[in-house]
Write a structure and sequence with these properties.
The chain is 33% helix and 17% strand. The two termini are 18 Å apart. It is α/β, with parallel strands linked by helices and 245 residues long. The chain contains nine helices and eight strands. The protein binds D-xylitol-5-phosphate and zinc ion. The site of zinc ion (ZN) has 6 residues, from strand 2.
């Protein structure tokens, strides 16, 4: 684990998702975002059951571990996620986030993840009442508010998410909790500031990092470093993150 990414006070954190990267050049896809100042690397695990798509498992996390010192932020979109925590821990995950909808008891799930020495996250889908996340917050390192329906990259940000982000932010601040508020789905230069103003402090970005049109070379290959700078620039209009982060 890279402790400094966590000890940075009051900074927004960018978390590129390799789901949108070129897997034939995984090493370079990761190195470029690390060089560009990414804070965490987001790794999306899909099982074809919890979500329709299928991605990959611990082997790719193990490969990422060898390729980067960035904390690996593993997002499990799978049924029965607790069966896999140990395997992802061994593979080198730093954060494991499971879905509230996929576990019988989110508090127990978070404790189980932390007991394995990992940072614990709970994710919530857009249609799940946000009240269900609030009581779990004291157990969490990461509250992940999905801003699209999980399952694929490149979807449009759901604007009704802003109200949900604000509710979670209010609860984190009211109890002075030590928990990141991460958002995932449709985050790009046109949506990131609104999500930040609503209270998010940690931003997953797939397509907007790895598949963004390159303003310097129209029609040319995407430039993830330039895309990260554009996201940081867009965040400036949101001021500083709330409280702890
Ligand atoms: C979607 C995944 C996301 C995905 C986001 O189910 O959880 O992490 O990579 O991709 P973008 O940023 O393109 O919406
Ligand atoms: Zn994700």
């Amino acid at each position: 684990m890279t402790p400094d990414a966590w000890s940075k006070p009051r900074e927004f954190r960018l978390c590129p998702s390799i789901l949108s990267a070129d897997f034939s050049r995984l090493g370079e896809s990761i190195a470029v975002v690390q060089r560009a100042g990414a804070d965490f690397l987001h790794v999306d695990i899909m099982d074809g059951q919890f979500v329709p798509n299928l991605t990959f498992g611990p082997l790719i996390v193990e490969a990422c571990r060898k390729l980067t010192s960035l904390p690996l932020d593993v997002h499990l979109m799978v049924v029965e996620p607790m069966r896999f925590v140990e395997g992802f821990a061994r593979a080198g995950a730093d954060h494991v986030t499971v879905h509230l909808e996929a576990v019988p008891d989110a508090t127990a799930a978070a404790r189980g993840i932390r007991n394995r020495g990992l940072r614990a996250g709970i994710a919530i889908k857009p249609e799940t009442p946000i009240e269900r996340l609030i009581p779990v917050l004291p157990e969490l390192d990461i509250a992940l508010v999905m801003t699209v329906e999980p399952g694929e990259g490149g979807q449009a940000f759901r604007p009704e998410s802003l109200e949900r982000i604000a509710r979670v932010r209010a609860a984190i601040d009211a109890h002075d909790l030590d928990c990141l508020l991460e958002v995932d789905g449709g985050i790009g230069p046109n949506t990131i500031a609104a999500a930040a103003s609503a209270g998010a402090d940690t931003f997953v970005a797939g397509n907007s990092v790895y598949r963004a049109p390159n303003p310097d070379r129209p029609g040319g290959p995407p430039d993830p470093a330039l895309a990260i700078r554009a996201l940081r620039e867009a965040l400036k209009s949101a001021g500083r993150p709330a409280k702890r982060t």
